[in-house]
From TrEMBL:
One of its GO terms (molecular function) is G protein-coupled receptor activity. The gene is LOC102829183. It comes from the Eukaryota. It is a multi-pass membrane protein. The keyword Cell membrane applies. Odorant receptor. GO terms for cellular component: plasma membrane. This is Olfactory receptor 14L1-like. Keywords: Cell membrane, G-protein coupled receptor, Membrane, Olfaction, Receptor, Sensory transduction, Transducer, Transmembrane, Transmembrane helix. The lineage of its organism: Eukaryota, Metazoa, Chordata, Craniata, Vertebrata. It comes from Chrysochloris asiatica. The chain crosses the membrane at residues 6-27, 39-60, 80-110, 122-144, 174-202, 214-234, 246-266. Signal peptide: none annotated. InterPro entries: GPCR_Rhodpsn, GPCR_Rhodpsn_7TM, Olfact_rcpt, Olfactory_GPCR.
Length: 296
């Protein structure tokens, strides 16, 4: 079973690497994609690569080598990095919803509001918020001594670490989780508010082609956000248990593995411009590989 789990996670990890790596490469190399929407998408792909690389490679290695251990320092670094990229991803997804809102609801002011400097500041603020959240969470999680060395999860999950601390009632970390959950709700409420206005504008649009284009851009993003926030919230807010259940594993996979793996598929590869650029790149590579070179 360990080998099967390792292989399944390896397939998901390679899919995330290839999908997000292609998006970063295409957006970086093609000047047609140097727009705010694709700038945010490239940062989302980068965060996804880092996010899934924090937990999955270690689990794959442990599964294939029939090992289930991690050092204390490695656990601390894993918790810090996981929170950093999770919070940064939520912030970027919120910024992307704002970009969609401005593009559809305020098109005449789009170039002014979403200027190059403003986009850069939003991305930097997303990363900074992730680093601050990671530092606070890690400090609160490991503030109390650990009384056991068994974690019933495939990575160092904060609720499981709280469970094995000397005092299960870790007021500091519980308070921070409540605060972060409130922040996540604010982000989700802002995203929901943006899409209410977006769908209201789209519904009044006379052109079916414009409606289809707007919905194909917005709905996948809304699916990703909903899946990410709901599964993470359920896992962190439910009472932790020493008994490892299938529900714990499914919830953790839903917010740690699936978003980075599915983001390129449900959000990016449905985009006609990206698919066209990818097709051209593949055609050029095939054409080059079929060329003959003659030596005199």
């Amino acid at each position: 079973m360990q080998v099967i789990h390792g292989v399944l996670f390896l397939v998901a990890y390679l899919s995330a690497l290839i999908g997000n790596g292609l998006i970063i490469f295409l957006i970086t190399c093609d000047h047609r994609f140097h727009t705010p929407m694709y700038f945010f998408l490239k940062n989302l792909s980068f965060i996804d690569l880092c996010y899934i690389s924090v937990t999955v490679p270690k689990f794959i290695l442990n599964s294939l080598m029939h090992n289930s251990s991690i050092s204390f320092l490695g656990c601390v670094l894993q918790v810090f990095s996981f929170v950093v990229f999770a919070c940064a991803e939520l912030a970027i997804l919120t910024v992307m919803s704002y970009d969609c809102y401005v593009a559809i609801c305020l098109p005449l002011h789009y170039d002014i509001i979403m200027s190059r400097g403003a986009c850069g500041q939003m991305v930097v603020a997303s990363y900074i918020s992730g680093v601050i959240s990671g530092a606070i969470h890690t400090t609160a999680t490991f503030y109390l001594p650990i009384s056991s060395n068994k974690i019933y999860q495939f990575f160092c999950d904060i609720p499981q670490i709280i469970l094995i601390s000397d005092s299960r009632l870790n007021i500091g970390e519980i308070g921070i989780i409540a605060l972060m959950f409130s922040a996540a709700l604010v982000c989700f409420a802002f995203i929901f508010y943006s899409y209410v206005h977006i769908f209201s504008i789209v519904r009044r649009t006379s052109s079916s082609e414009d409606r289809s284009k707007a919905l194909s851009t917005c709905i996948p993003h809304l699916i990703v956000v909903t899946l990410f926030i709901i599964t993470a919230s359920l896992d962190y807010l439910k009472p932790p248990s020493h008994l490892r259940s299938l529900l714990d594993l499914i919830l953790s996979v839903f917010y740690t593995v699936l978003p980075p793996t599915l983001n390129p598929i449900i959000y990016s590869f449905r985009n006609k411009e990206i698919k066209t650029a990818l097709g051209k790149m593949m055609h050029m590579e095939i054409f080059k590989s079929n060329q003959f070179f003659w030596n005199d």
